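Final paragraph of the annual report: two paired records, presented back to back.
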Amino acid sequence: MAHTDNQRNGMKESANASADTDALAPADPARQSLMARCRACGVEIEDTFCTKCGQHRDDFRRSIFDLAHAFIEETFGIESRMWRTLRSLACEPGAVARHYADGVRTKFTPPIRLFIIASALFFLSIAITETLFLAIDLQPRGQDEARHRPARPAFDFFRTDFLETDVDCGIDLSVRLFVRANAISNDQDAWNQCADRIRLLIDATGDERPQAISRFDQFQAGVAEILSNPYLVNNTFNTWLPRVFLIMAPVMALLIAVFVRGSRALVYDNLIFAFYFHAVWLTVATLAVVIAHANVPLIGLGAGLLLVGYLIVSIRRFYGRGWLKTILTASGVSALYLAIMVAISGIITIKTIQLVGA
């Protein structure tokens, strides 16, 4: 019995000595690397988030090389989220947005990130191809055409403000979108003659409103400058369009909310849909700009019809609506969206003309 007790006492002493040794020994480096203290509450955390306050354990500090490597891997990797997202966007319109809104997010590139990348590529293509967002094309009408065409005012704005009779300057003025500068050939002499003719008629009416006459002179000078250098108005578009695109995505989400109701059509869902759709249409616009550089006819019309069809299919798949409601929703959203874009483009153009002509 004494021998047995001695054995037990010896085993206890050995166990205590082993525990003391473990306590004094340095911690396992692998385990120590996993253990970290939350910077917010100081609790030790082993997982991605703190179990007490929920803060992420990563401090998000990265070198420029790490950021570049992560971007390249994310963007150009064959099995990356980017390519998976693009494939799904192309083959299943509306499916990526629906999955992302329903919580399936690790498979796909976030909508805002994809929107920023698509925007950058779009403006890069505009710069490389030297494409003009908007250009004024002004040409004199031929004598035969002018003879058979009924007289019409050159500018209703000035006719109503200054003149009681219509003025036909014999010119055709049109606005062209996404064209190269060498595709525009303006007859500046025709514009100057038209402006002089309107100015003489204003003087003949005896209008003594200095502010109104000054406004016309400013407009005439601004148009003349833009005709001679179409990049003036496009520099303004380059400055404002990125901001406009960023604003128009939430605007589209609000427009959709006017036509669609339901638990799967909340503002959060609409925003995800809108940013993904903007990424798609910016990508299509980028391809159209590059293809148009090769003088492919009707590429703009084809891109527009493609986007309309894509929007219809996307809305139907994302919101689960019938074809009739989907077409009505797409038509309403498209009409209001285009009206807002035209209004913004008009404001930018008019403000540019006023600044240039000042």
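The closing record of the year follows.
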Amino acid sequence: MESLINKVKHYRRNYSIVARAHYISADRYGHINMLLGVPALTISIAICSTLFASSTPNFPQYILTAAGVASLFVTMLTGLQVFMRASERSMEHRAAGARFADVRRRLELMEIRFHNANNDSVKVCISELENMLIELRELGSLCPKIPDKDYKSAKKEYIAENESN
């Protein structure tokens, strides 16, 4: 039974890291979305203000030219925002992180339930673990890929919090 519990601990560790990596990815894509969206909105507002002000007599032509160049920049930023799908990716990673965190909690409960169990409980534990692994295989195919950088950060955090003693 001890080797089975060690396997459950191994899976719990791995899926703790995967859940955290998805949350890190969600935060990163959320920041990217903000880095593209806030300047685009701010510059768009400035361009609109410039166009309204341009109706006044003797308005400098170079300001209108600058507004035209800025509008190209806004178009580029919003194009990148649409192309990168940062907002959608952030939501997908956040949802995946929540699903894997749920798996981690279920593995923790399994570890607690079967920690001091007798050998008669081995079949029940194996059956539950097999069902969970089937579910995890399906979940893994539905979730977005975790960037290596985010996985490494999550693993480093996990080790610092749980394996430093």
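DSSP finds five helices and no strands in the chain. This concludes the annual technical report; the extension proposal builds directly on these records.
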